[in-house]
Amino acid sequence: MDLIEVLINNRTEIINKSVNLLNRAHLKNYNELKETERTKKLSILYDLALKCIKNKNIIDIVEYSEKIAAERFNKGFDFHEVHTAFNVLEEAIWESILNNMAPEEYGEALGFVSTVLGAGKESLANTFIQLSAKTKVRNLDLSSLR
Q1: Cβ 43 vs Cβ 15: under 8 Å
Q2: What is the DSSP letter of 146?
Q3: Cα–Cα distance measured from residue 132 to residue 124, given in angstroms and rounded to the nearest whole number
């Protein structure tokens, strides 16, 4: 079975695994969302990653990552929270690849997934950094440390 077949045939299982991993991460802002909303967000990211893998083009995931970084930043999400959402999806995809493909196919399949999601994570990080640099930092009260 090739990578695209694995991703299409195991979509529901991969997304459900991702949601479970995200739930176990106990991320403040994601925990405040209904599970259906967490599932929807991971489904959108999954479908976009699949599209980019099919097309062998990362432009869509880079642009999407910039967009959601700005949205999540403005809603008070920490970078770690959004980055974790990418990571749990990647972990679930890797598991599906390892369970459904021949070992000699792992390298190329994992490479495609890591390249696409890695580009998304890099774009996410760059956008968060740019937005953080524009935000005025409050003075910290460190008196309790004395």
Answers
A1: yes
A2: -
A3: 12
- Phi/psi of residue 34, each to 5°? -65, 155
Q: Which residues, at least 6 apart from 84, have a Cβ–Cβ distance to it below 8 Å?
A: 22, 25, 27
Q: What is the pLDDT of residues 10-45, one digit of tens each?
A: 999 999 999 999 999 999 999 899 999 999 999 999
What does the DSSP assignment read for 102-137?
-GGGHHHHHHHHHHHHHHHHHHHHHHHHHHHHHSPP
Q: Express each pLDDT in 65-78 by its tens digit.
A: 999 999 999 999 99
Q: Which one-letter amino acid corresponds to residue 8?
A: I
Which residues, including other chains, have CB under 8 Å from residue 66's CB and lie 6 or more apart?
123, 124, 126, 127
**pTM, rounded to two decimals:** 0.88
